[in-house]
Specification:
heterodimer, A: 238 residues, mainly alpha, MetI-like fold, 74% helix, B: 328 residues, alpha/beta, D-Maltodextrin-Binding Protein, domain 2, 10-stranded mixed sheet, two-stranded antiparallel ribbon, 12 helices, ABC-Tungstate_binding (chain B), Molybdate transport protein (chain B)
Chain lengths: 238, 328
């Protein structure tokens, strides 16, 4: 979208038939669910990527293939699997997670982890072996070496986190199934995200409102990317 | 409403207590929903000093329902009243009749509000649902392009109209999503003795609004509930060619909605108390009046059916069930 389109879009946003606070609440739920899921994914993925990057063992290539395959999991299938897990009859049924943000975080965690792991692993692999050897030669422990490699690989890892966030915030299949797209009668979202709100508008044939919510989603992803890139630059200058 | 004021105030103050309690307990047991529940309570906490907490206050009722009740805005319009009266939250999940019943079958909802009597009866017979009530009705209409290529306008029978469309090979858009409307459509084809298929018959697997849009773009016929058609009429290019019973059309196009609680004997953690409170509330004269007063574009979408002088025992049991028969 060109910049010239924005002024035309702005009044359209104000004129929307949405109740006050509706759009903000779905933006909040989108961010809450995706950021939490990506944060947890990152905490799992980066150590796994570093460990895999350092380790040499038979079958490493196979493990990598499995992770890469995970990047292509259809989100609807992930949603169904998480639904079976958290449904009343499922193994986690007693926790009553169905139609909650926690269930949505679970499914997005499953979706975001493979890309974050795979891209982080590529970044870690890409760090010159000399860096690690130098760290060890200077008397560093394995942890020190890992931290040095992480620092070198931080751009790649930032890219990985952004890719994971992009996947999480833009998918609609799984959050619709496990979250239920719920908004209270007061118009405050409980489990409705931007993507499921778009799906709801499209279901009703309200394609213009759906497009505007789509523009909000694109703006949101752009903002998050800009913030992360800016953060990364700060790291370079420091 | 004056009679209910005391209970209302009691519920408000109880909600206040529960809400405050929810905030003071660290974390909030049920995660994300816990925080929201607390907010609802706090807003009403200045209702006065409460004696003791009402049993259901602070709880959440999960209602699975069809897209037509939700997308027309009806549920949002009436649910605030229920939430305030009991100090609870209603999570309305709009899924389509087939999916709504399946979710309830898995024990993931407390109550269902759907519109396909055959599927409801199966749900009842299998023991998943209890305490069914007739709730409201509207009707289905057959819509199509104004040019009416198959020439069905003025047909007084829905099945005859469908046969005409099939014979002419005119485009027909089917929901194809196991929703109440889709079930109705399949029943009509069966009654017409026609097996729909071929290039002219398209299963879209989409919601009613989308199906209406697809029909507009392709100049096709489709079966729609009147409510969704009215709420979208201004944006689509389709006219009603065969009316439903509300406008003196054939009775076969009637669209009755029912409400049922999930059987706590099958799913013991179903919120049965609150489900029954909801059924009692939504079938009460005042809420039935609110349903009939609900307007979109100045038109009434739903006609209340729960309040009647005459007994209608068939609403409680699967259709055709008789106390004398041994078919159970």
């Amino acid at each position: 979208m060109s910049l010239a389109a924005i002024p035309q879009l702005a009044p359209a946003l104000l004129d929307l038939p949405f109740r006050e606070g509706y759009v903000w609440s779905i933006v909040y739920v989108s961010l809450y669910v995706s950021v939490t899921a990506v944060a947890v994914s990152t905490l799992v993925s980066v150590p796994v990527a570093v460990a895999l990057g350092f380790a040499e063992f038979p079958g490493k290539g196979f493990v990598k293939s499995v992770i890469n395959t995970g990047m292509g999991f259809p989100s609807v299938v992930v949603g169904l699997v998480v639904l079976f897990a958290v449904s009343n009859q499922g193994p986690l049924g007693s926790l009553e997670l169905i139609f909650t943000r926690e269930a949505m975080i679970m499914s997005q965690f499953v979706l975001a982890t493979p890309p974050i792991t795979a891209i982080s692993l590529a970044a870690v692999d890409g760090v010159d072996d000399g860096v690690r050897d130098a760290a060890r030669a200077l008397g560093g422990t394995r942890i020190d070496a890992a931290l040095v490699v992480l620092k070198e690989a931080r751009y790649g890892i930032a890219t990985a986190v952004l890719a994971g966030f992009g996947r999480a915030v833009s998918e609609v299949g799984s959050v619709l199934i496990v979250g239920g797209n719920i908004t209270g009668p007061d118009g405050v979202s409980k489990t409705r995200t931007l993507t499921t709100a778009i799906q709801l508008e499209a279901r009703q044939g309200q394609y213009e409102t759906a497009m505007i919510l789509g523009a909000v989603l694109v703006a949101l992803v752009l903002t998050v990317n800009a913030v992360v890139v800016r953060f990364g630059d700060g790291g370079v200058n420091a | 409403m004056t009679i209910q004021r005391r209970e209302f105030v009691a519920a408000l103050s109880a909600a206040g207590i529960v809400g405050t309690a929810g905030c003071s307990s660290a974390g909030g047991g049920s995660g994300g929903s816990g925080g929201d529940g607390g907010t609802g309570g706090n807003e009403t906490s200045d209702g006065g000093s409460a004696s003791e907490a009402v049993g259901v206050a602070g709880e959440t009722l999960t209602l699975t329902t069809t897209t037509s009740t939700y997308d027309t805005g009806l549920l949002d319009a009436i649910h605030t009243d229920f939430e305030e009266m009991y100090g609870v939250e209603v999570d309305a999940v709009a899924q389509g009749t087939g999916a709504a019943l399946e979710t309830a079958r898995n024990g993931d909802s407390d109550i269902v509000m759907v519109h396909a009597r055959g599927l409801e009866d199966e749900f009842l017979r299998n023991g998943y649902g209890v305490n069914r009530r007739d709730l409201m009705f509207n009707d289905f209409v057959i819509v199509g392009p104004e040019s009416d290529p198959a020439g069905i306008q003025g047909t007084s029978s829905a099945t005859e109209a469908l046969t005409t469309i099939a014979d002419a090979g005119a485009s027909f858009v089917s929901r194809g999503d196991n929703s109440g409307t889709h079930t109705k459509e399949l029943n009509l084809w069966e009654a017409a003795g026609t097996d729909p298929g071929g290039d002219w018959y398209q299963e879209t697997g989409s919601g009613m609004g989308e199906a209406l849009n697809i029909a507009t773009q392709q100049g096709a016929y489709t079966l729609s509930d009147r409510g969704t058609y009215i709420s979208q009429r201004s944006e689509i290019d389709l006219t009603i060619l065969v009316q439903g019973p509300i406008e003196d059309g054939p009775e076969t196009l009637a669209n009755p909605y029912g409400v049922m609680a999930v059987n706590p004997g099958v799913h013991e953690d179903a919120n049965y108390d609150l489900a029954m409170a909801y059924i009692g509330w939504i079938t009460s004269p005042s809420v039935q009046a609110s349903i009939s007063e609900y307007r979109v574009d100045g038109e009434q979408l739903f006609f209340p059916r729960a309040v009647s002088e005459d007994p209608d025992f068939q609403q409680y049991v699967p259709e055709g069930w008789s106390g004398d028969s041994d078919d159970e």
